[in-house]
User: Fold these one by one.
Assistant:
Number 1:
Amino acid sequence: MGVRESALDGVTVSSQAADLPLTLSDRLLAWRDRIQGSERFQRWAASFPLTRPIALARSRALFDLTAGFVYTQTLTACVEIGLFEFLADTPRTLAEVASHANLPLEETGRLLRAAMALKLVQGRSHKRFGNGPLGAPMIGNTAVARLIEHNALLYNDLSNPVELLRSAGNRNRQVLDAFPYTSVSNPESFNRSVVEEYSRLMADTVEPIARELLDTYSLDGVTSLLDVGGGEGSFCAAVAARYLNIKLGLFDLPAVIEGARPRLEKMGFEGRVTCYGGNFHADALPEGHQVITLLRVLLDHDDASVLKLLRTVRPAVAKGGRVLIVEPFAGVSGAEVVGDVYFGFYLRAMGRGRARTVGELRALLSQAGFSSVRVVKTRYPVYAGMLVAEP
């Protein structure tokens, strides 16, 4: 999957735009829209042998957009009752699933039929059920399960999407309440109870990103690494497990670091990671690290905050060092629904931030004083695009 620049990149809203002349492409697309919007054409396209497959595919795609919320809730129900783990070892009968889920037989059948249609569940011998091709990867997948559970907050915030887009304030949003640091000016004053839930969510969901980074980008020869905004240290722990000689540092809010220390100690890595408590919007970072990592950090902030952070990061990088940025990018060909749809609305509910294209990140890095920026291809650009920047 490649990256593309968005048609919105660098666009300034202008009242004069409507007066600009139409290009040939504009006219052809307008003609296409008139034709495809015709009920007569739609009936013909659905009947003519050469166009029928296209018409049916587009009809199905439109219905999927209409019914997507039901698909989401079907998956959520399967996660909530622990269906994928229950089906992991051996096929189960309808009665066994009903007993496990504490649901009536008829309603269990309804759920299983829906899950089968979505390829989450698959029929097995003797009228039993097992995991389907999309259900099997969910077995023991804590990161995705936690995200699905967390999405219940976003689901509620999106009950009135137009109001979400119109509202100027950041009040009465469940996603916003889950990330309190986005709405206060002094998050470094938080106590542990305020940050505990979102810190654990971030720790649980960063693990696949950590694996992707370490599988894709070699840290051989690196002597020191600082993970900025690294939460409770999940990425530092992953690095420590693979590289025995890297000096590791972790920088996050003091209340977050309070949870990182016991987590790292439990994993046997406390002595390997130096923890720094502070606010990267206001405090200088410890200097001299060969690599500084920013995992899912920039997309949570507006452009001004990102630029300020990158300017704070630059002097902390040792001579000849680099910064690794790993997060979902906007404008990834074939994965637009992740950066442009999911994170577009998620970050609106959160109150700030946005997924950015590679071009937008390059521009911010250039303004912050980084002279070299390159894209590193990853296996799963859907959730983990990667940039390497050098001063």
Number 2:
Amino acid sequence: MLTLQIIWFLLIAVLLSGYAILDGFDLGIGNLYLLGKEEDKKTMLAAVGPFWDGNEVWLLTGGGAIFAAFPEVYATVFSGFYLALILLLMALIFRAVSVEFRGKSDGAGWKKFWDGGFFVGSLLISILPGVAFGNILRGIPVDASKEYMGTFFGLLNPYAVLIGLLSLAMFTMHGALYLAMKTDGSLRQRAAGWAKNAWVAFVALYIAATAATYAFVPAMFARYEESVLPWAFVAVAVLAIIYTKLSMGKGNYTAAFLSSAVSIAMLIGVAAAGLFPNMVPSTLDTAFNLTVMNASSSQRTLTVMLVLALIGVPIVLVYTTWIYRAFRGKITLHKEGY
């Protein structure tokens, strides 16, 4: 039973990492969107157009996995973060509609409205999951009946907001690197500059978040005192962040983008290693923590869902690989485009 619970904990971390890496670059492009000129905006939308909906499959799969494998975590978090999740859902919908509707009319007002929708939607989706994740790392007021006892505004604490800003900088850097990798000319040069500035902000916020975690969430470091294995995530993350900078300096934006993807996955690994075996720490009493042991589904459910995951996840991987291969190379604009 414990083995199945650990497998599902790891699988959820992998699914969320896949979402952060894949949707992270198109969210980052959305964060930079208003900095572009008209032709740049069309190129930016062409960069995300073939991928954004497929990228979001990873988020849906991750949410579904939490619901199936750890229903009490799903119930507590989704009910406690209800208003924030509704805001996130609205941002996802409005952003998607903006991508599809922007090119349906040549009117300046029309384009300006949907441009704003794409930017605001991307910004909110970049920040809100980080804020939610920051609250999970810090812990939330969960009582003995596994009910959230806090308020919406209690979620907007300084530590969680700091993690939200970290995710914003991380996705912005990732998106700028993708643009630099996929474009030529003046947009490539500007994207390279955006990536370098975002890298500085990302590193500064990462250092600040690490210091804040050490000061205010010391329980996160307990696992690192027990074993050297979690330090592998830290080492690879730091090396990937450094290599991203070195690759940008050499103008190798493909390597920089891939290194950025590794750093995103490793940072999620760092957080997961610090949390385990907790999934939702309680600030009221550690006895109320939701863990992989006390919040999971039955052994039969975990087994059946694992079989389904072993069938479904490879299908998603094949589809993702195929679509990125089909649209490989530099971005080219067409008359019928965005």
Number 3:
Amino acid sequence: MLAYVLIRLGGSVIVVAVVSLIVFSLTVISGGDPALIFAGDIASAADVEAIRLRMGLDQPFFKRFFGWAFTVLHGNLGTSLFTSTPVSSLIRQRLEPTATLTVATIVTSIVVAVPIGIMAALRPDSWLDQLVVASCSVAFAVPGFIVGYVLIYLFSLKLGLLPVQGYAPLSSGLGNTLRTLVLPTATLSLVYVALLARTTRAGMIDVLAQDFIRTARAKGAGTVRIMFRHALRNTANAILTVVGLGIASLLGGVVIVETVFGLPGLGRLTVDAVMNRDYPVIQALILLAASLKIVVNLVIDLLYAVVDRRIEV
């Protein structure tokens, strides 16, 4: 186990290094001039040049890259060109809404989707199974922002039950926070519920057709025991894969959902940084997303061995 973890960590370091090089290259391939953005529209050519010298933009590319990488390794992600605020501070300020939304989405998806997938698998080709499959197909096809606007219209504008936009921090009370997260979580969970339900259904149908399930039934094992002790446990790896992919790819969905619902999270920060061509913030967010995906993949791989003892790491 330890050797496997060390090997994966070594590979992860290489991947992060490559991603860091690509991310830093954004300042070159984007065609913009950070010094010009930082100086503003009324700055003179001399002012822009002075800023370029101060930011080290006159130095060779790889010298700038290794200097940036050195500061990142020491926890310094740079300074925002638009707000002149340390990027690490901006990320800390915006982390809570995104983290709470992500946790709420994953928990909701698992709690809703797994039972739906199990019920559909118990009666394949029944009306319930066909309804689940059709509903999942529709959920995949509907864009998230449309779902968000429909939910806002129904539950906020028409019924007045939930706020249209905004976020209540955890310091204001868990109830207030959850109230502001209901609609964003429902919007973001829709596609993951569909994916997880389909995965659970397919995995359970496949496992329930195996010989060891028939043997368990012949020995008198009850339906509940068969479903949870045998079938669901053997489907857990597929479920873990979908959960891992969902966590790693949530940032893309969070960008849309946070924009629709006005949540001050990392998604909104990403949109603002792109619109303002705030390269240090963009670089830090992409590096953070890549690192998160690497960590999640490693954790999921280790959980495979915990759930399924046949897998050795």
Number 4:
Amino acid sequence: MSYIGIDNGTSGSIGIIQDSGLALQLSVPVNKSLNYTKSKQFLNRVDCPNLRRTLSAHWDLGGFCLIERPMVNPGRFKATTSALRALESTLIALEGLNIPIGFIDSKEWQRELLPKGLWRQVKGKTGKMHMKANPEELKLASLEIGRRLFPSVNLDGFKDADGLLIAEYCRRTHKS
């Protein structure tokens, strides 16, 4: 069985855990290309054929894939557009390999795998209280927990272990 966790986006990661004991975290493969707007800009796009090859090399026809739901915020149009573009490419690769997929919000897997003390109650703009964590602290905690749970996985060069931890959450919740 293979359990795949995908931290969606062009700077995201892919975690893979197999029942055989193999565990790894990979960067999402991307291409830099010229933007299709009027101004001259470059953007990163998920390299769908390369992603498909990477996933097929580690997929053993059993298991599940959880994808972190992309951030959608009208106030952050460019980031939202990039996240949705990346999600579409990722879905095309997964569907082409017939890998069963589900979606997960970051807080769901973080609540299970990261220390509880990272979140604090804060008052939102509407006056309602909600839980919030410092993004830098979340990344550091993710990396540290990833290193503890998977000491054989090389996480050098990664800002966090989100893909791997999503895969671990997938393994815990979708094991047959």
